[in-house]
Protein 1
Amino acid sequence: MMLEARDLACERGDLRLFSGLEFALSAGELLWVRGANGSGKTSLLRLVAGLSRPAAGSIHWRGEDIRALAEEYARELLFIGHSNAVKDEFSAEENLAVSLDLAGRRSSAAERAAALEQLGLAARARLPARYLSQGQKRRVALARLCLAADVPLWILDEPFAALDARALDTVVGLVDAHLARGGAAILTTHQEVTIAARARFSIALGD
Amino acid sequence: MTIDSYRLQGEAGIRGWLLFRFAAPQAFYPLAGRVIPWFGALATLLAAAGLYISFFVAPTDAQQGEAYRIIFIHVAAAWMSMFLYVVMACWAALGLVLNTRLSGMMASAIAPTGAMFTFVALWSGALWGKPTWGTWWVWDARLTSELILLFLYFGFIALTNAIEDPRRADRAGAVLAIVGVINIPIIYFSVQWWNTLHQGASVSLTRAPSMAMTMLTGMLLMALAAWMYSIAVVLARVRSIILERERDAEWVRGLRGVE
Amino acid sequence: MLAGLKAIVARDLRLSMRRRGDVLNHLVFFVIVVTLFPLGVGAEPNLLRAMAPGILWVAALLAAMLSLQRLFAADFADGTLEQMLISAQPLGVIVVGKMIAHWMMSGLPLTLLAPVLGVQFDLPQAALATLVLSLAIGTPVLSLIGGVGAALTLGVRGGGVLLALLVLPLYVPVLIFGAGAVAEVSGGMSAAPHLSLLGAFLAISCAVAPWATCAALRVAYD
């Protein structure tokens, strides 16, 4: 078992979004977080990523509290949230290089070019990102997934939103391959997608 | 949505110490209410005694006449302004480290009183300056430091008011207060040095008239009175902050007079 | 860790270079403010020479303050800061890297421009040199302390003015000793004690500011 949440509670302002939440995730497993808008899906993902502290409870990675692990845990996860973390002044290629750098992963120009090609951005790789459409910027953010084979935990917030059919297939394929390699993934999505996984769990928030 | 006893247990259960039993706002609220009148009474008594000594018992100063008596208020206010900032920073730091809600509320409750004393110190300094030097303001080391301390208080109040989420506001204020506390001695020292360089030989507030025993007693009494007053006022303010922040809790709804 | 630091500095510098307008604006502001003072107080040379250290220091301070918003605001808005918080690099390294890059694009140009403006005030040669030295030590302190303020006011309404209100009082000692150093040298004395105190402030800020900034960033996201 890799990831475990114990007695998790989350508040936003005065509102308690959820409490007493528990789950466990092992290699090859996918956790699908469902719920209406505002029910706390993004908040849960941010808690798991270590971006915010829970109001109660704890999260454990390989048995240890993630707050104790800090950077060690950060190295083992990949988080793609709502915002793309794409800078308008940088090209798609440069953006990818910077985000991989932050994640502690060195990459070669060839690897980055291949990743962008896989997401259908080869033609626009060198344009400043301000000239890309919303969907294309999303794809730049998702291109990290091509080079994240060694990252065990993927936390993806609405990864399939604003993608066309081909890009959708590509990203689903990437998640499939990741799970097959023994990685784990947590994601939220409103779309119906088929992902092959050793086990699929879902949590529905907001009842 | 009710914020239930879950959190109460969580916070009180951190350690079983008596101190932490009152760390939850629900327990602190009635306790504060009971002690406020005592502190208020103490403050009144001490102030009466201090003012009596200041105005009637302490001897007239040879150089400055009767006007110097304002120093009793000025010194007490200045001491309290600095003392309260340190206390505020301590509460804020406690809230940051232990993640207790009450600590942040205490810090927010202290700030306006601290700012008030700073303002009183400045105003009483000006009132002293006018008959003594003929001007309302002088760039004396202590006055200038007090002015900057006032800005520090304003900064804390402005920051905590500008952030809407109370927990984030408390924690941001805590970081600011801690950085400020480290800076206060540095600021005071810098201004002191700057002042001696530029002011030269003029009489300054920092060189108070040599202390007769009665003067010292007067100042101490006023300082103690200010301290008791601060405790009473801060506790009253924190009670209203508690009511405001915990307004969705069941125990608040159960209080008489709260709809 | 050093490689990570260099990477962050390089990234931020590259970003600034592509947004040159931002960077130049506050330099122009510096020149304008310095020019305003003689217009306001009259052109009496002795008066201006006496006031010059203070004017130049305050103007540099205000200009550097204007650029502080840039430190985290853009990264906060587009989600990059989020990634930095959960990056494999320690947050402290990232923060220090950003502050270094910020200083290189704001404090450093101001430091180099100041003596040119000091000539307008008829400051003696030695005073100009001290001006550069004092600003060279003092502007990094502003990037450091200002970083704390910028992190505290992330996404808060009234951000820019609030930032100034928070940072300027904390900055007073640096102003006093920085301008004081130049004034001493103008008067023919040594500025060594002032400069060493400035150095001490720099050391204290290096110790405290990165920690406080990281804490403030985490508070913003909690």
Note: The beta strands of chain A are 3-12, 15-25, 29-35, 56-61, 64-65, 77-80, 153-157, 184-188, 199-205.
Protein 2
Amino acid sequence: MAQKLAFYPGCSLEGMANDYARSIAAVFEQLDITLVEIEDWSCCGATAAHSLDETMAVLLPARNLAAAEKMGLDIVSPCANCFNRLLFSRAMIRKKIYDIPWPVSGEIEVYDMTRFLARPEMVARIEQRVLKPLKGLKVVCYYGCQMVRPPRLTGFTDYENPLTLDRLAAAAGAEVLDWSYKTTCCGASIGIGRRDIQESLTARLLEKARETGAEAIVVSCPLCQANLDLFQRDRAPRRPHLPVFYFTELLRLAFEADKGSADWFRAHIADPVPLLRAKDLLR
Amino acid sequence: MTEKQAESQCEPAESPSDAPGRRRLIGDRGSHFLNRMEAETGANVAACYQCERCTNACPVSAYMDIKPHQVIRHVQLGWRDELLRSATVWVCLSCEMCTTYCPNEVGVAETILHLRSLSARSGIAPQERQLAVFHQTFLDELQRFGRVNEAWLMAALNRKPGILGEKWRTGQLKTELELGWTLWRKGKLKLLPQRCAAIHEIRALYRNRRGG
């Protein structure tokens, strides 16, 4: 299998989720998979285009699909929303009802990053690379909405109990706990105008994760990570922190245990370093 | 929003055609609105039999004045104006729970999102103004750079009329500044936006959309 993929980072990975971007680069290097960033990619339009202008919601991702087709590579997307938008656009391109200014057939594969890595052959490869399993780290995996729903678009058949992150966190050696809130919405960007709604949704997720006995949450969506992590910034005195890891951060830690440094986690609000040191997973 | 407010918003808005005794079962133009919505979204709106699964699955139905199953009923009956005036179209998270669990594959979230775009173009003042302005600002920034930078997006949002004043009054501004400082300290803010080299292609898309 040709181990070369077109990488569509999305806007978040240039800003708030730059730590996600760094860990992805490290993990894929370890796995000997070349990620080729789509040249001069542009924003997928996210919820805004979807909300206000459905035609733009097709055309904006189409530009990136066309660029990847030109490269002749399948796309892997680390961001749940980008993944969802690319698939939506691809489905519309196939219906051939839009006039798209770029040559695009909609025939390439678009992978969600967790799904690409959670296939059996990749999990086997990941397990081979693990230098130091993350023994004793109790985590719950949180998938959010856009990666799994609507299932007829995303292709997730296990949309009520998705397992891709669970498999990857387990491959890194963590103890993965089961819980019922894997795909319950975190509030997305509603906090912009309605902080009350945002906080009620996010607080419930953190509460349930603690009840389950988790010491950390594993995510793949930059917006979920921001919501869950930032919510904890001024509530430190009352509650113990619940670090929110990108799954690639855990994989990187398991791969490069000897080189692990607190600097990898400096972008976190809920600081994971004390937890990792207590578990003897970080120097 | 208090429960009482939410309740009062569930009452039909008072406009001449909605006055008691004068309300027609089907909207003024028969099933025109239903047909239009079905054609524009591909959602199977007529198939809804009000099982309320969408509303039960919705994480924010408590904050909605017209609940998801009622939205579908409103569309069936052609009650367009109530929908475009509702808070529902702005509160929806597009988490797709409703669509996923609908037994009749109605496409509830797609319907609500389409109503949002209709509402944005209708000239009706949105109930959640900040959210409405935010979505528009996002598209403005996208047109400017081809990509969206979080710091510039928030700055652009704050420059829109009335937003900064509202944030000042509600104390949101202070929270936001503190948040900004935290993000900066953690190295999560990128101050310089990345511009697409082919920004003209993106702008051409916008121009063509406006028929220019």
Note: The longest helix of chain B spans residues 129-145.
